[in-house]
Amino acid sequence: HYSPQNTRVAVGGPGGVIIGGKEFAVIAGPCAVENQQQMTTVVDAVVAGGAVMLRGGAFKPRTSPYSFQGLGVAGLALLAEQRSRTGLPVVTEVVTPEDVERVAEESDMLQIGTRNMQNFGLLREAGRSGRPVLLKRGMSATVEEWLLAAEYLMHMGNGDVVLCERGIRSYERSTRFTLDLSAVAEAKRLTHLPVVVDPSHSTGRPHLVGPMSLAAAACGADGLLIDVHTDAAAALCDGAQALDGDRFAALVDQLKPVVEAV
Ligand code: PEP
Q1: Would you say which domain of life the source belongs to (predicted)?
Q2: 114: CA distance to ligand 1 center in Å?
Q3: Percent of the chain, pLDDT > 90?
Q4: Cα separation, 167 vs 146, whole angstroms
Q5: Residue 3 — pLDDT band, cuts 50, 70, 90?
Q6: What is the third-level CATH fold of 9-261?
Q7: What distance in angstroms lies between residue 113's CA and the mean position of ligand 1's atoms?
Q8: 13, pLDDT greater than 90
Q9: Ligand 1: distance of its center to the CA of 200 in Å?
Q10: Which residues contact residue 33 at a Cβ distance below 8 angstroms, ignoring those fewer than 6 apart?
Q11: Is 176 near ligand 1, meaning CB less than 6 Å away?
C-alpha cells in the first residue's frame, strides 16, 4: 500500500499516527460515544487489540430523527478523556460548519460522513480548520465526485486529507451498503491521498467485517475504520455491525501477513 510519492497524513502531532505511511493504520472504537464507562471499556479493548487510533461519534447524523443523536459536546469531552488516558489520537465526526472549530479543538482529526460529503459549507470550514480530515465517500457519489469533494478541502489550504470508502447504495439488501473495493484501488491510482476502508458501516454485518478488512488490505488500503463495542446488544448506535474486543484482536492479527504481502 505504500509509495514514497504518496501523501502521508500525520494525525496527533509528533509521536502520533501517520496514515499513508509504511504502517497500516487500524482505527477503532464505538460508533457513538455513549458514556464514560462504555468508552473506557471499549477503548481498553481496542488498545489491547492493536488499534493505533480511536474513533467515536459525538455528533451522530442519524437517518431517523427518533434515533440517538449523540451526546454532542459532552461526547467530545469523553472522547478527549480517552485520548489523554491512552495517548492515542482520536477522529470524530463533525456535521455542521458552526461546530468545526469546537470539534477541531477537542480532537485530532475531523470526520466528514457519507451524508455530508457534498456539504460544501462544511467542507470549506473543515478545510480551514488546520486539522486532518477523514472524508467518507458519499453513499451515492462517484469516485470523481468524492475526489472533487476532497479538492474542496485542499482548495482551502488543507492537504491533510484521508479518503474513506464506506460502501455505496446498490440494489443488494443482504448487506447494509455495497463495499466498493475497486474504488479503493482506483482512488489510489488517481490520487496521492491515503485511502482507508470502513468495513463496519459498509457491510452492517459483523461476520463480513473480517473478510472485507482483509480484502481492503489486499487491494492497497492504508488502513481501516472499525466499529467495536463490548456490549453490542445494548449499543445506542449500530450495535449490529460492531465487533467485540476478541474478534477485533483476532482480526488485527490476521491482517499482519496480508499487509506485509502487499
Ligand atoms: C460513522 O463512521 O460513524 C458514520 C456515521 O459513518 P458513515 O458516514 O459512513 O455512515
Answers
A1: Bacteria
A2: 6
A3: 97
A4: 12
A5: confident
A6: TIM Barrel (3.20.20)
A7: 5
A8: no
A9: 9
A10: 39, 56, 57, 58, 70, 71, 75, 76, 78, 79, 92
A11: no
